[in-house]
Write a structure and sequence with these properties.
The protein is of the alpha/beta class and 338 residues long. 39% of the residues lie in helices and 12% in strands.
């Protein structure tokens, strides 16, 4: 993990972004990174200062149970503005197509444009890790497909027309699908695997259909996160987070959500962004290409850490993989579609 010079955000002044799932974690980190680059950021989610109910003691089901956490979209929007952007909090349940349509209609009315969409909703209901697929709770599994996959489809569906209009006379638009991992390897739990690999596939498919519209679609994964929930899980704060290495030494290679957020800002500002459309990236590999750092000035690299610790490099989707993505039969039968 190297310490580099002071970070200078790209200039995204005049850009309008929608970060779906900006309450906490990766979504909040991306909203803040876009804000420090000067963008107007619509921060959506369901938790607000007005409706948040405090969690009772011992009510947490699992380390990744986000129900009744203290973070809200109001806080995120205020933090975006404090960093130099313009944060706008909007309560939206992205499982409801009508609410998503209303949101995009509002962005059209208020801004007349939309440059960046981040599908960052990834909160899972309690996932019974360690069980085999025939032992899993089907109700929770189906809820996770709704919470993660369906919300992304809903939001892209209603956002795409405005993004295409915007990109026709401006910089390349960007849709970012936030997942976990930049490979197609199995992730150890049936429903978790389906959610995290499906969002990658969504980026592939949307990129294909957007290839003549000047809108890029990519999937992106963070590394080992120092999110609010993970800090709580390890019993540390951002000030003493290194103490978590006593429980898991891998945490020394962790990153804050701002790191992957700055990866999104770098992608958005890249004049050659469209060349990356239809691919999946990681925060650490993008940090090899773009000059961004984490909040503390360091550049954590989960890939190098994993290889050094476990003796094998992480596999990721490479050029050989992408060769199998384009189906020659589809191209031959439907050469002009879409």
């Amino acid at each position: 993990m190297e310490n580099t010079s002071e970070y200078r955000p790209p200039d995204l002044t005049g850009r309008v972004a929608l970060v779906a799932g900006a309450t906490r974690g990766v979504g909040r980190g991306i909203a803040l990174a876009l804000g420090e680059a000067g963008a107007t950021v619509y921060c959506t989610g369901r938790s607000t200062a007005a409706n948040r109910l405090a969690r009772k003691a011992n009510e947490k089901i699992s380390p990744f149970d986000h129900a009744r956490r203290p973070e809200t979209i109001d806080q995120t929007a205020a933090m975006v503005t404090a960093r130099g952007g313009k944060g706008i909090a909007v309560v939206v349940d992205h499982t409801d197509p009508a609410q998503v349509k209303s949101l995009v209609d509002r962005i059209r009315t208020e801004q007349g444009k939309l440059h960046i969409l981040v599908n960052g909703i990834s909160e899972l209901t309690h996932a019974d890790f360690g069980k085999l697929f025939w032992q899993l709770d089907l109700r929770s599994g189906m809820e996770n497909l709704d919470n993660v996959v369906h919300t992304h489809v809903n939001t892209s569906h209603f956002s795409a027309p405005l993004m295409i209009e915007t990109a026709a006379n401006g910089p390349t638009g960007l849709i970012v699908e936030i997942g976990d991992g930049d490979s197609y390897g199995y992730r150890g739990h049936l429903f978790y695997d389906l959610t995290k690999t499906t969002v990658i596939r969504l980026a592939f498919a949307m990129a294909r259909e957007l290839r003549k519209k000047n809108v890029a679609a990519v999937a992106l994964t963070p590394g080992f996160l120092r999110s609010e929930a993970m800090l709580e899980h390890f019993g540390v704060t951002e000030e003493n987070w290194r103490d978590a290495a006593k429980k898991d030494p891998n945490y020394l290679a962790s990153e804050t959500p701002l790191f992957v957020g700055r990866a999104v800002a770098a992608l958005s500002a890249d004049p050659d962004l469209f060349k990356k459309s239809g691919r999946v990236f990681s925060s650490w590999r993008l940090s090899d290409e773009y000059p961004f750092t984490d909040a503390d000035g360091f550049r954590p690299h989960w890939g190098r850490h994993f290889a050094a610790t476990y003796g094998n490099p992480l596999k990721y989707c490479d050029d050989a993989f992408y060769e199998h993505w384009i189906d020659p039969a589809v191209d031959a039968l439907f050469p002009d579609w879409p």
